[in-house]
Write a structure and sequence with these properties.
Blueprint lengths: L4 E8 L4 E7 H4 L20 H4 L7 E9 L5 E9 L4 E9 L5 E11 L2 E10 L5 E8 L5 E5 L9
Antiparallel strand pairs: 1-2, 1-3, 3-4, 4-5, 5-6, 6-7, 7-8, 8-9
Length: about 150
Amino acid sequence: MTPTSAVVEAWLIGGEHVHQVLDAWDYFDSFDEGVDDVRVAVAKYGHAIEYLSLSPRDVSRSRILVCGSEGQSLEIIETFWGSGPNRIIWRRDSSRNGEIADFGIVEIHTSEGVQFLKLVAANGAAPSLQSHAVLSPSDELSQIYPAPEQKKKV
């Protein structure tokens, strides 16, 4: 992969805008010479706030934009609410030939646990629900959608 840069930015609750331009060596965990696509390379951190050393309770929105040397890109936007733990993570991957794939995760914290909804969309189509799960306070994961298949009795 030809190294590129990443723009990492956040908008704080008070309105301040924080941003940093990272070179590829600071953004990615490692480069595999056989990988030439920023969309599949492994980042050091999963969220913009980690690169900026910010707490989710101080941020209303964050963004990462990485453009590859071959025309591909990825953009990750996170929107926070409820003093930080709740968020929507939206990722857009653009390929060299202009195809776009969108992925979203909605994470909502309640007293009954954490709800996770995963959404997908392609080339401008409306997002559709791919899965819905709940992580209980005792760390038990329950899948709500699609419903778990019933085991057949033999």
